[in-house]
Amino acid sequence: MRCSSCGERLAATDERCSLCGAAVTRALTESSPVVRRCPRCHYTGQGIGYFRRPGHLALLAAVSLFTWGVGGVVYWLLRRRHSVCPNCGLSWPEGGYALGPAWGPAEASRPEPALPSGGIRRRMLGAGLALFGTALIGGGLVGGEPPAVVAGGIFGLAGTGTFFWGWRALQDRRAAVRQVLERRVLQLATRRGGSLTVTEVASNLDLSLTAAEGVLIAMDDGFRVRSDITDEGVLVFEFPEVQHRRLPG
């Protein structure tokens, strides 16, 4: 069996991966239902219904209240078939991140799960609603029409909420990309004996030198990943836990 996070080989009794520290997820039987893998926290299992979370129900009620029910219906139609990671709360798209009924050693060779949406449409829609609301408020104040001011405030609130909903999706996507890169760096470090340079990461993972350096620096916690400069002036990132497993006897 291999670690679902970094691909390290595990013993049958291991509860956590000795390389990356991730909790071990046991293999599921062929009769098990389809499972999913969260791209943010790597939880593996079944999600829960999107509107089973109290926060989503509260948001549905608020959107319905401030848009005379129209926004609530649209929100429900867009999210009714989505699910949520029970571990970190990330929204999973309809049919997204499926791994199939089995989870075992073959998973390490499977392609990376699809990244979550960056929420660009939500941000654009939110900005449009907010601008429209601002225009209504301005027109209502100039023309002395309180209903227009109230309607503008409603559209402004809906637009602000939609924009920040999309902004949260963008942050989730960035976090998922970072986790994918960190996993690939760990796998590369395992193959290279626990020592990497920025150039090695950039060339093997098809990254720019700046991006590769940023990933390694972000992983450098002084414990599981440490950086040092050799006598030749080369910046080297070491992975002590990988090096430890390769020490003789």
Kindly describe this structure.
There is one protein chain. The chain is mainly alpha-helical and 249 residues long. It folds into four domains: 1-47 and 85-114, no CATH class; 50-79; 117-183; 192-245, Arc Repressor Mutant, subunit A. The chain has helices at 54-66, 70-79, 120-143, 146-191, 198-205, 209-219, 240-245; strands at 35-37, 44-45, 48-49, 83-84, 91-92, 98-100, 195-197, 226-229, 235-238. The protein has a three-stranded antiparallel β-sheet, with no helix packed on it. A hairpin with a 5-residue loop joins β8 (226-229) and β9 (235-238). α1 (54-66) packs antiparallel against α2 and α3 runs antiparallel to α4. The two termini are 23 Å apart.
Strand order of the largest sheet: 2-1-6
| SSE sequence, one letter per element | EEEHHEEEHHEHHEEH
Oligomer: single chain
The residue ranges in which pLDDT falls below 50 over 5 or more consecutive positions are 27-32, 100-110
Q: Give the terminus-to-terminus CA distance.
A: 23 Å
How many beta-strand segments?
9
Mean pLDDT: 78
Compute the number of structural domains.
4
Number of helices: 7
Q: Rg from C-alpha positions?
A: 24 Å
Q: Shape from CA axes?
A: elongated
**Biggest sheet features:** 3 strands, antiparallel
Helix/strand class: mainly alpha
**What percent of residues are in strands?**
5-15%
Give me a quick take on this structure.
This protein is mainly α and 249 residues long. It has helices spanning 54-66, 70-79, 120-143, 146-191, 198-205, 209-219, 240-245; strands at 35-37, 44-45, 48-49, 83-84, 91-92, 98-100, 195-197, 226-229, 235-238. The longest helix is centred in the last third of the chain and has 46 residues, at 146-191.
